[in-house]
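Whiteboard transcription, Tuesday session. T.W. wrote the C-alpha cells on the left side:
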C-alpha cells in the first residue's frame, strides 16, 4: 500500500453492482491506472463484494459499501424480474438530495479530484454536487436498456428520462467496444476492457491438476450464481476437463469436472487464458476477457436483453465462436457442439487492452493544468 503522505491523486469510482461485469471492467481500468501512476488512490463505491477488488487490484483503494444503482433485478443469470426492478427503481429514484449531498461531502473530505462512473448515474449526481468533473465509462446505459421494456411497464418512461439527463451531464464520456448505443459526444471509444492475466496457462493448469495436453473448457455464467445439474453429465467426456467458476460454494472435483466458488484462489482472466474454449453467458466482462485471451467462445444470449444481440454480433465479427441456445445449455444437449467449438482456432491479439486506453485518457486528464 502506498503511504498516505505519498498519495498525490484520489479518484472516486462509482460501480454498478449488476453482476460482476462492471466491477471487472472498472478493476481493469484501475489496475492500468495504478501501473501508470502507483500513487493514485481510489475510493470505490459499490455493493460488489470488497474481495473482488482486493483480488483485482494491487494499488491503494478504500471500499465503500453502497447501492449505486439498480440496473435489473435478476431471477437467474439469463432472466430479469421486471416487476421487482420497477419496485426497486421506485424506491431508489429520484435520488434523495440529502444522500447526494452527504456523498459529495464524503468525496470532498477524501480530497478526490475526479469521479469515474461505470454506468452508475449516482456518481455523476455526486460529482455535480461536489463541483468535481465526472467521467462515464460504458458500453450501454440503463436508459438504453429500459427502453426495451417500456411496452411492458410504462412507468419506466419517467426513469428513462431522468437517467438520460444524468448520463448526458457527465463531463467526459468513454465508450468501450462492443458499444450498444454509439454516441457522437464520446471523447474516446476503446477496444474491449478487461483485467489482465497474471499467471501462465501452465501454472494455472498445474494448480488445477490438469495436464498441458488435456483439453480444458471453462463454463461461466458471470457473477450471478445458478446451479445447473446437467453439467454433471459432462463426466462422460473423459478426454476433456471442465472448470466451472461459481458452480459450487467450495472447490469440488467430480471426475473431470472442477467446480469452484465465485471467490476462489483462481483469477478469472487466468482461467480463461488457460482454457482451450469458453462456454457461458455472453456478458461484457466475459466477452472482453475471452476476446483478449483469444479462446473460442460458445456463447449463450440473454433473451429479452438487447445488449446480447450486439455482443453476439461482435463475437461473430471479431472472435471465433458459436451460439448455444439457452434450452440446449439447460438440458445439456449443447455438448453436441463440443467438437465444432474445439475445432475453432484461438486468436492472438496484438492491439492494446481497452483498459490501457481508458487509463491513459484518465491520467492525461488528471495531470492536465485544470486539475
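and on the right, the sequence the group agreed on:
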Amino acid at each position: 500500500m502506498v503511504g498516505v503522505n505519498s498519495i498525490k491523486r484520489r479518484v472516486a469510482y462509482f460501480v454498478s453492482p449488476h453482476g460482476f461485469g462492471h466491477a471487472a471492467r472498472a478493476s481493469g481500468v484501475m489496475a492500468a491506472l495504478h501501473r501508470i501512476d502507483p500513487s493514485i488512490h481510489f475510493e470505490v463505491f459499490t455493493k460488489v463484494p470488497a474481495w473482488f477488488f482486493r483480488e483485482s487490484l494491487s494499488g491503494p483503494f478504500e471500499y465503500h459499501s453502497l447501492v449505486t444503482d439498480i440496473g435489473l433485478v435478476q431471477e437467474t443469470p439469463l432472466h430479469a424480474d421486471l416487476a421487482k426492478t420497477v419496485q426497486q427503481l421506485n424506491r431508489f429514484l429520484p435520488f434523495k438530495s440529502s444522500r447526494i449531498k452527504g456523498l459529495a461531502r464524503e468525496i470532498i473530505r477524501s480530497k478526490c479530484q475526479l469521479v469515474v462512473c461505470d454506468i452508475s448515474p449516482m456518481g455523476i449526481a455526486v460529482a455535480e454536487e461536489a463541483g468535481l468533473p465526472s467521467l462515464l465509462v460504458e458500453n450501454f446505459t440503463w436508459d438504453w436498456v429500459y427502453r426495451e421494456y417500456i411496452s411492458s411497464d410504462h412507468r419506466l418512461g419517467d426513469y428513462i428520462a431522468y437517467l438520460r439527463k444524468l448520463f448526458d451531464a457527465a463531463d467526459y464520456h468513454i465508450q468501450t467496444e462492443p458499444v450498444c448505443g454509439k454516441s457522437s459526444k464520446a471523447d474516446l471509444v476503446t477496444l474491449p476492457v478487461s483485467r489482465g492475466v497474471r499467471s501462465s496457462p501452465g501454472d494455472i493448469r498445474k494448480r488445477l491438476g490438469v495436464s498441458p495436453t488435456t483439453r480444458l473448457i471453462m463454463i461461466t455464467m458471470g457473477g450471478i450464481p445458478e446451479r445447473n445439474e446437467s453439467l454433471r453429465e459432462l463426466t462422460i467426456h473423459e478426454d476433456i476437463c471442465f472448470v466451472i467458476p461459481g458452480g459450487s460454494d467450495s472447490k469440488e472435483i467430480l471426475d473431470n469436472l472442477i467446480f469452484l466458488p465465485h471467490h476462489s484462489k483462481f483469477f478469472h482472466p487466468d482461467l480463461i487464458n488457460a482454457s482451450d474454449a469458453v462456454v457461458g453467458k455472453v456478458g461484457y466482462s466475459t466477452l472482453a476477457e475471452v476476446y483478449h485471451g483469444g479462446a473460442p467462445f460458445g456463447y449463450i444470449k440473454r433473451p429479452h436483453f438487447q445488449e446480447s444481440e450486439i455482443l453476439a454480433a461482435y463475437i461473430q465479427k471479431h472472435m471465433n465462436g458459436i451460439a448455444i441456445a439457452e434450452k440446449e445449455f439447460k438440458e445439456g444437449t449443447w455438448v453436441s457442439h463440443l467438437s465444432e467449438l474445439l475445432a475453432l482456432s484461438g486468436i492472438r491479439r496484438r492491439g492494446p487492452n481497452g483498459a490501457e486506453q481508458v487509463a491513459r485518457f484518465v491520467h492525461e486528464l488528471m495531470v492536465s493544468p485544470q486539475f
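Someone added at the bottom: The radius of gyration is 21 Å.
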